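hey can u check if this looks right to u? its 212 residues, i copy pasted from the old doc so theres a chance i mangled smth
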Amino acid sequence: MKKKVRITLSCVTVVAGILSAAGLFVWYCDRMIAGCEARCYDDLSAVPPRETALVPGAARITPAGIPNCYFQSRVAAAAQLYHAGKVRHILISGDNSRRDYNEPRDMFEALRELDVPESAMTLDYAGFRTLDSVVRAKTAFGCDRIVIVSQRFHAARAVYIARKHGIDAIGFVAVENVSDRVRRRNHFREYFARVAAWLDVNVWHRPPKFVR
């Protein structure tokens, strides 16, 4: 009986140790990327000018069939940057892996409705995830000084990835006008996204699916 108790206690100790180590690693990755929040601006007037704004893609419509607030606020923020003269060009990078799904084109059309001229926009159809959008801004489009337009939690991760790839990146924060439930869900997911981002740039050195 005593032997079974010792084995059980040993197993509990090992599991607790693994969970503690995993928790510390998640916390570490989060803190490393959170440090880039200092490079993300809420105030339009304070944004240092850059040649190009990078707008990571988002779906126009959510799976629930309603307009996506993240899409709308990123587009609005990018238009603000352009009309304020903070950037001269907007690189729209998103997923177009299916015929019926085209994030860059949807954002392009939304920006046109906000009086951003076609000549001031370039579409990247291979921005399948944040790393692809950020790295391709440099490798495929030659942009090494950019403003990344997204919600604060996502902008910080994108800036982190950019700086790890030698890109002088800052962020412009798009509003996060969603319900508390959606905000909590997305911020919870972000912990794991930050772990994946940290591993991608520091351990796996993962390239985008299409470098150029």
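The chain has a mean pLDDT of 94.
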